[in-house]
Amino acid sequence: MSPKKPTAGIILAAGESIRFGKPKQLLKLKNKCLIEWVLDAALGSRLKQIFLVLGHEHQKILQALGTKARHPRLQVVVNHRYEQGQSVSLQTGVLKIRNQFPSAMFLLGDQPMLESKTIDYLLDQFWSSDKDICVPVHRGKRGNPAVFSRRFYRQLSQIEGDIGARNIIQSFPDQVLQVDIDNPLFFFDIDTPEDFNKLTSLIS
Predict the structure, then answer these.
(1) Does the pTM exceed 0.90?
(2) DSSP string, 60-128
(3) How many Å apart are CA 39 and CA 41, to the nearest integer?
């Protein structure tokens, strides 16, 4: 068994969706809320446990998730300092898993085209490698979700502002496993109404 197993999944979904103008997490895409698409992909994968970090409008989001919010492999964590940016959500997740899991995958709550099989493919590549960071890549461009081993929990806990872990990834290129993903939709994230409309037209 890989020393990096088991891996926790941390879904970052606490933001205010300022560029969008209303909570993206609650947008209806086909028959599900945006956050449900990501959550279903994570729960269908081999991630051992999922930690959903909510913040802005967290009560409405929990209400929209219904019984899914009580899934035995899901733990909801509320980041009350979500206005300070994504880094606080990232830290909130790391604090929850650092003593229990030797690695963690960070997923974004606005990437609804994630698939369980692709999450598992990333995990397999990460577990079998000697690298401590794993990122998906499409045509040379890096995306999310990213996986980190315990080695980087301290650095992840010290990130500040509204940024993710890209500075850590850039600072340790020798520790990064890049995994090619063919499907460009896997990387599609929704920041604006135009993004949402584009995705809706692509999958309708």
Answers:
(1) yes
(2) HHHHHHGGGGG-TTEEEEE-TTGGG-HHHHHHHHHHHHTTT-SEEEEEETT-TT--HHHHHHHHHHHHT
(3) 5
User: What kind of fold does domain 7-203 have according to CATH?
Assistant: Spore Coat Polysaccharide Biosynthesis Protein SpsA; Chain A (3.90.550)
The CA-atom distances, in angstroms, between 161 and each of 73, 78, 79, 82, 164 are 29, 18, 14, 10, 9
Backbone angles phi, psi at 192, to 5 degrees: -130, 165
- Non-local (6+) Cβ contacts of 59 within 8 A are none
Tokens found for residue 159: 């990130």
Domain boundaries, the chain: 7-203
Tell me the residue type at 76.
Answer: V
pLDDT, tens only, 128-147: 999 999 999 998 889 999 99
Q: Which residues contact 162 (CB under 8 A, 6 or more apart)?
A: 84, 85, 86, 87
